[in-house]
Specification:
The protein is built from 4 helices and 7 strands, in the order ααβαββββαββ. By secondary structure, the chain is an alpha+beta fold. It folds into 3 domains: 56 residues, no CATH class; 68 residues, no CATH class; 33 residues, no CATH class. It has a 3-stranded antiparallel sheet, with no helix packed on it. Strand 4 and strand 5 form a beta hairpin.
Length: 205
């Protein structure tokens, strides 16, 4: 089996790590006097696992498993790991956006209650219906004949009997009040995007 000189092509600028892996392979190769095959090249060797781990999962790397919660130190055999970003989604760091310009910066909220400033501009309309047929009683009097006899009564009686109409001085003007009540529950709304959960770990050492 040959050396892994091409390992650096897999991970970009990792020539130093690839050199470490090659050194381990050389040690194993020499230990078996050049007779290295799939039977005696034991990938469970701690030093080989550590070298491969440093190559493909350097400190700060993220490991994700869809359904196995076992610590990667046990699953992969190297490194120190801690759960990462519990209950949060991961967003790529962005120097041009102050919300995302720092690594491991947190933000956002699971639920949110809108403030007045966040509510779209809008209006409420109202209407009122009333029957315009109504009356105002007026008491008046008129003299007939020689002025010694006087008749008095409601405006309708005077219109019917004396031919004289009386009106109030405000011409029956009046006003109506319309009230528009509040509505809505003032509760926080769900702010979650569609999601799927997995076990995410970060290598710390």
């Amino acid at each position: 089996m040959g050396r892994v000189d091409k390992a650096k092509t897999f991970v970009g600028d990792t020539a130093a790590k690839a050199s470490e892996v090659n050194t381990v392979f050389d040690d194993i190769y020499n230990e078996f006097n050049g007779s290295v095959d799939e039977y005696n090249l034991n990938l469970d060797r701690p030093e080989l696992k550590a070298a491969l781990g440093d190559l493909f999962y350097p400190v700060g790397s993220i490991y994700t498993n869809a359904n196995d919660s076992t610590n990667p130190a046990t699953l992969l055999g190297f490194g120190t790991w801690e759960r990462f970003g519990k209950g949060r989604v991961i967003v790529s760091q962005d120097d041009t956006d102050t919300d995302f310009d720092t690594a491991e910066k947190t933000g956002g909220e699971k639920t949110h209650t809108l403030t007045d400033a966040e509510i779209p501009s809008h209006n409420h309309s109202g209407s009122a219906s009333t029957d315009g047929n109504h009356s105002h009683e007026t008491i008046g009097s008129r003299s007939f004949g020689n002025g010694n006899t006087r008749y008095s009564g409601g405006g309708a009686d005077l219109i019917g009997n004396a031919g004289t109409q009386f009106r109030t001085d405000t011409n029956g003007s009046h006003s109506h009040t319309i009230s528009i009540g509040n509505t809505g529950g003032d509760s926080a709304h769900n702010n979650l995007q569609p999601y799927i959960t997995a076990y995410i770990w970060k290598r710390t050492a």
